[in-house]
Structure formats: C-alpha cells, structure tokens
Amino acid sequence: MHTLNQKINRRGLAVAAGTLLCVMTLVPNIRATAAGPTSGIVCSTSTGTTPSFSLTAGADYIQMPDGNTMWTWSFGPTGGVFQFPGPVLCVNQGDTVTVVLNNKLPEATSIMFQGIEGVLANGVPVQPQFTGPKLTSLVNTAAPNGSVTYSFVASEPGTFLYESGTNVGKQVQMGLYGALVVRPPADVATGLPRAYGPGTEYLPNTEFVLLLSEMDPNLHSAVELNQPYDVTTLHPRYWLINGRSFPDTIAPNNAAWLPHQPYGALEHLTVQDLNTPDPNNPNNAPALIRYLNAGSRNHPFHPHGENGRLIARDATPLLDVGGNDLSYETFSFNIGSGQTWDQTYHYDNQEHFDGALNPVPVTIPQLMNLEFKGAATYYSGSPYLGQKGQLPVAVTSFNQCGEYYMVAHSHALYEVANYDAGFGGMLTLERIDPIAGHQAPGTNCTP
Following CA atoms 107, 297, 410, 2 in sequence, which dihedral angle do they give, to the nearest 10 degrees? Predict the structure, then answer.
C-alpha cells in the first residue's frame, strides 16, 4: 500500500479567466515515462488495411488517489503490462480488423464491439446459439486459458465501446472495457482530420478520449476473495475518467506513479481569437472530445468555460434524413450507460481582454483579499491570458505561461468524490494556452 505522501501533495485555489475556482488537486511531478503525448488520445495502432490486435483479459491492482487499491480486471495488451482500461484501438474506415482475446481470468469472457455490425468470432457470426428455446452456448466466448479471434470490417467512422459480453453486470463493472476509434479520410482541402463527414474537422493533437465509469469496492473485494456478490446491490464509491479519479486524471499519460493506469484526461487546448490568427491553427479548427460511458449509471457531464458542440451520438452523426446538420451547442449533457458522444470544443477569447487596451471591467481583488490554500495555485497572478503577475511570497504557482484552467466534471456532484470525500472522482481540468508568441515573457507553454 502506497502512503498518500508518497504519491501526492494536496493543492487548492485556482483562478481561471478572472474567476475564482476552488479545486483540491494532487500535483505530482509531471513526467511521462514512455514515448508519446503527455495529454490527449494515445492510440494502439497496427499498420496496413488489416490491423490486428492481441488482448489478454487479466487482473491486477490499480491505485486510487486516497491511497486505496482495487483488484481490477481489464483487457490489456498481450505480453505487455496490465493496464486499465483496455487500449484505445484506432483503425481507419474500411479496414478489416482482427482482435485476438486471450483469457487469463478464472471464468469465461468475451468481447462485444458495441455498434459494429458483422463481427465474426473464430470465423462464425457472433450470435447466441439456440436449441429450440434454450440458450446452449455463445460462440464468442473464451474459456479460462482459452482464446477467441474476432474480425470485422470497420465500415463506419466513429467512437465505439468494446466491453465484455459475458456476465456483464459483473465483468464490465470489474473493468473489462475500452474504446475503439474508427477514423474517416481527412478533409482534402485543409488536410484536417475528421470525426465523421464534412463539418466535423478538428485540430490534430487536440483529440481527447474521456471514458467514464464507476467502481464499487465491495464488488472488487468479493471477486478478489472469491466470494459471492449480488450485482443488484451495486453501490459505486469511485467515479472514473480513463480509469483514474481526480486528481490523478490531470496527471500525464504514462505517469510513473500510475503504472497500470496509463491514460490521463487533461484537456490541453490553445485559445482561439479571431483578432489574432494562430499560426498553428490557421483554420480555427476545434478540439475533438470523444466521450464514452462504460458504467451502469448515466453521467451528466459539463465542461466549464465554453459550450461544446455535440456532433454525434453512438457513432451516428447528428443529421436529419436529408443530411442537414442537427449538431448543437450545450453546456451540459447526459451520457447514458453504454453510450458514446462526440463533441467539438474550443475556447474563444471573445472579450479580447488586454491589460492596457481592454481591461477587465471589474475591480481585480488585491492579493491581501485572496486565499491560497496549501500555499499553491493555478492562478498566474493576472486575470489576462498569457500574462503573469505578483503572488504572495512562498505561494507556488503551477501556471507556466499565463494560461487559464477550467474544470470539466460530472454534474452529479456525489460523483465528484473519492469514496464520498470531495473533491475527486469524475473531474478533470482544461488547460487553455495563449496563442504562440502571446505568452508571458520568459515562460514556456509546453507541459
């Protein structure tokens, strides 16, 4: 058991866009231990038009921010380190995909690819097998120490869940799930990637997967100890994004202190300002956030700072029968159990605040009137994006270049907790960087 002090330091006050935001966070040394982006989607890929993946259903412990550990099942990469949740499988539209499932669990398991048609298991269509009215077997199940090979054509683009199709109330809650991303061709004119068809372009390197779920420690303990458990009494105590609870959600991908939970959930964006073109984003393309709910509860989710535009649900673009755009902006939306939602998101500098030309039209609190819990803050000392100001002596700022920080979280506030203790759970941060060349002098916006 790791002690709390070995993993974290509790932090407090944050200020974003001139608004006081109280959050309790854990701020470890932010270093990634493996190659790849520190934030954003981390894809498992396979080359060619016939990508192949090998997954192993296994078990190990994962860590919670309160120091607890949980015995968890997951689909991990065969021959690799146990990871939770399963790898994000990324393929291209039209690929013929193969997934081999090796089962190291003490009971049979399987994989359902939600929303994918024409899946074969060992060359046979995945379907229940009946003898008269009686269900006799499932052709897509791998027995303990057995394996099964799935194949399908990724005919439609979108965001899909894959999860256990065996004893679902137990096995999915134990952690047998992951995300599948099917990518369509990029936009020909701009070269920008698309989530679906025209109008769904997004900026590369600002694509995020937020896989929501929950855990009941009593279920996990019962499975670990080989004891019975009634799934109808499920009582979740941990609320997760990408297999982590806040504040671990804002730690980077592949954080060394979370060896079995490789995926962070920090949304790292650059501000959009029509008065100041961004050389790194000449088309003002938004970010793309792929939401998935692998849990048994519905989760109302809410990003702060800006409305997002919902463009698809369950890998189906929001279009009418005539192909007209039905996407819409919203500040909060309910992600149902088993659903996926796709949202484009950007942060506009609509006010064009500038300390000299267009100052904030309210009195900025003096330092003596601010409280910095734990002598630390995400506030730069200035309400202006890209600028830094004074902070009291001995106060540590995690703000690197005058960026803003917003929260994105479940609006069911009991889910913003770790074993009923807030703040925690289904919550993460959005980091909004100034446009290149407009950050505070002598600072660096690279995390």
Answer: -30
Q: What is the DSSP string of 261-317?
A: ------EEEE-B-TTS--TT-TT---EEEEEEE-SSS-EEEEESSS-EEEEEETTEE
Using CA atoms, how far residue 257 sits from 24, 63, 320, in Å, is 19, 9, 47
pLDDT digits (tens, 9 = 90+) for 348-389: 888 777 777 778 888 888 888 888 878 888 888 888 888 888
Distance (Å, whole) CA 380 – CA 441: 13
Tokens of 276: 């100041």
Whether 128 maps to a domain, the answer reads yes
Q: What is the DSSP string of 94-141?
A: T-EEEEEEEE-SSS-EE-EETT--S-EETTEE--EEEETTEEEEETTE
Order of strands across the sheet with 158-163? Answer: 43-44, 88-92, 177-183, 158-163, 112-113
How many CA atoms does the CB half-sphere of 326 hold within 13 Å?
A: 10
Q: Residue 443: what pLDDT?
A: 78
Assigned domain for 327 exists? yes
Any domain includes 204: yes
Q: How many domains does the structure of the chain reveal? A: 1
DSSP assignment letter at 398 = -
Does pLDDT of 2 surpass 60? no
The answer to whether residue 447 scores a pLDDT higher than 90 is: no
**Is residue 259 within 8 Å of residue 72, measured between CB atoms?**
no
> What pLDDT digit, counting tens, does each position of 17-38 carry?
333 333 333 333 333 334 578 9
Cβ(23)–Cβ(391) below 8 Å: no
Name which of 422, 164, 406 is nearest 294 in CA terms.
164
Q: Which domain holds residue 32?
A: 4-433
153 within some domain: yes
What CATH number has the domain bearing residue 151?
Answer: 2.60.40.420
Q: What CA–CA distance (Å, rounded) separates 433 from 401? A: 8
Structure tokens at 397: 């700022």
Instruction: Report pLDDT digits (tens) over 194-227.
Output: 999 999 999 999 999 999 999 999 999 999 999 9
What are the C-alpha distances in Å from 65 to residues 84, 275, 322? 15, 42, 49
Instruction: Show the tokens assigned to 78.
Output: 């065969």
CA distance 145 to 105: 7
